[in-house]
Write a structure and sequence with these properties.
Elements: H1 12-50, H2 58-72, H3 74-88
Helix pairs in contact: 1-3, 2-3
GO molecular function: chorismate mutase activity
EC number: 5.4.99.5
Pfam family, one: CM_2
Length: 91
């Protein structure tokens, strides 16, 4: 991960504009990754159902919730729940 330091010669407006542009770029990447995750999750679900399994694997979802909580704290759990809902639908 690259970290940047503020250019001390830039105006606050320019610094904010640059930072917002970077945020927009990051958001585009995050959205793309979520869409990719949704597609991979669909393959897992379809394969599980085709082989006689259930659509949702709760112990796996608990692992995912724990990973996000450990990395991001309590808000990470909410983020993981949203991701799971996007990827598998409501249960």
């Amino acid at each position: 991960m690259t970290t940047t330091t503020a250019d001390t010669t830039a105006t606050p407006e320019a610094t904010i504009a640059d930072a917002r542009e970077r945020i927009d770029t990051l958001d585009d990447r995050i959205i793309g990754l979520i869409q990719e995750r949704m597609a991979v999750s669909a393959v897992v679900q379809q394969t599980r159902i085709a082989s006689g399994g259930r659509r949702v694997h709760l112990s796996r979802e608990m692992e995912i919730l724990g990973r996000y909580r450990d990395a991001l704290g309590k808000p990470g759990t909410g983020l993981a729940m949203t991701l799971l809902e996007l990827c598998r639908g409501r249960i």
